[in-house]
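Researcher: We're reviewing a set of sequences before deciding which ones to prioritize for further study. For each one, I'd like a predicted 3D structure that I can look through quickly. This is Protein-glutamine gamma-glutamyltransferase 4. If possible, include the structure in token form so it fits the rest of the review sheet.
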Amino acid sequence: ETSLKVTGIDFLKSQNTQQHHTDGYNIKNLVVRRGQPFQVQVSLNRELRPADKLSLRFGIGENPMKNRGSLLSLKPEREDFNGWKISLVKKNGKECLLSVTSSPNAPVGKYNLHVKTETNIYKPENGVIYLLFNPWCEDDVVYMANEAQKKEYVLNDTGYIYVGSAYSIYDRPWNFGQFEEFILDACMYLLDKSKLSLNDRRDPANVSRAMSALVNANDDNGVLLGNWSGNYVSGTSPMDWIGSVTILQNYYKTKKPVRYGQCWVFAGVLNTVMRCLGVPSRCVSTFDAAHDTEENLRVDVYLNERGEKLNSLSFDSVWNFHVWNDVWMKRTDLPNGFNGWQAIDSTPQEQSQGLFQCGPCPVKAVREGDVYLPYDSKFVYAEVNADRVYWVVKKVNGKEKYFKVGTETQAIGKNISTKAVGQNRREDITQEYKYPEGSKEERMSMERAYSFIRPSGLTPRSGYASTIQTLGGNTQPLVLNEPVTKTGLQLEITNTEALHPGNPLEMAIIVKISAPGNWTVDLTGSCQLQYYTGKVQANLGTIKETISLEGTSEMQVPLKIAPDAYMKTLSSVEDEVLILVTAIAEVKETNDKLTKETSMRFEYPPITVQMPETARLYHDFTCAFIFKNKLNVTLENCKLLVEGLGIFKMTTFEQGDIMPGRIMKSEIICTPTRLGEKKIVAKLISNQIKGISTEKAITIT
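Model: Here's the predicted structure for Protein-glutamine gamma-glutamyltransferase 4, in token form for your review sheet.
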């Protein structure tokens, strides 16, 4: 009797990947999602008989063993094995069609498939099957019911990351590219590198925490090296990326950290990794995010007597914006009520359990003030809820003293933003992170949070206070109690002309008073250039004026900065800088004090893209980029970065210098390799401007 042998196996890739929403992955192997059936067709040397022994063996890891659960041996029509099932769909001569359903909480990763018959083992070519999380399966903890949300948060390979400042938010197009060549392999490499146990790979909470650690290079030779120094000569400036693909491909090729990232780059790459593994994920930008190193829910800002912010005095800071990620899952490790979005953050800010990792922290725990829940909920809570306290440092009898000139309780954690589902617009999700300012729920949530965090009293503290003698040893700094404003003093800061590089910066501070009477107000205003992390790069100018207001009235005080004061700094820094205006007002008659700051970004002329609305698969088309320099300055060392997923591989074009009034026109030939709506993304960078982005969509038929 001839013994049963397998002569071939067909993974029915196109049918399986369509059903599993994995047909986008650019890889030879079969990619499927857990908890959902897929079919394989096995060809035999003779017809299958009832007495024949046939089993599919799935092995994961270096040395798969049954008793460790890393080797699954599945026989048709037998009871399930570790939650996996297999059944014979139909027999047709020497062919048999089998259906395999993995467990909805199976470890994600790469499985080797062998087919065993009697004593023979058949090892197919490309027999490695990639198993991912499954938001389409109700029994998977990442299940997401809404179809449009899955399309956005799992399948969309492009999007936006919101940056700028609360005063002027703008979108940076970003190519996530989770389906591109080698990206899935890079994610699998990270999973192996994470040293997560097989059991830990079942749970997206463990996997997302491990990925938040591995996307930064700090402890583990992970993907991206962070750099906020302003010097990026030995790598790529964080401003020069327009997507995650090049970064992950380089990392997978070299297995060495890619230089350099800042928060939006970390968030863009982590978003790619999570979507690639099948966990719904979104980039979340918070404006005026606190980086509170002491978990006391307070960030101190120190000003000199000219109203200029000082860098050196505090270790905590307020970032103009900070970007992290939310991932969607049921938290089986927590009490009820904390399922849904979880914040994770791969920007290396602070160690958690000895590593630079952050989250997953339930967004609902942040909103409710349940900051004892894992992971890192105190840190995330402080980022969106700290108070900002302003101090002026003055010399009194040769000793430095601190005077409190304002407290803002609603200034931190504003305009929390993500890309809207299915639309190219910003969605404000602040209400998912916090209750409305001043509501009863907000007060209760705050009291709850404060019972787990011990805020310090209101004395100024500085990171260096104990080491620098000029602060006068241990003299108790002078603290003024905060007076309730008797005059209804208010400050507003705006720009009165467009803020174009090369033009004067024309801004205004508006002082308002609502109480009847005659009032004298001392106004100090300063203008500085700062990085998005709040670090001051240059002092541009200050004003000091005393103004008189009568009754309910307001006055506009201009603040003007000449181009010479800032252009040199602007051209010499590698980062995008923001214009920071700080105002301190003091009412002489009542001692009312108020401080207000606003960050604004420079405004740039646009790039236009010319290309057809549709094109045919594998048929070339031309795409042109046109930019007119409407600024009064020459843009030096211009570079145009272009990438279109499935259309055009990431390329940098050197454009030289573009004089005022000159037009740059650059043409490329694109070859579409994939169907559907695709996008071309471009960015222009020069010494003077750190990024004008644009994008255009095209449908490939």
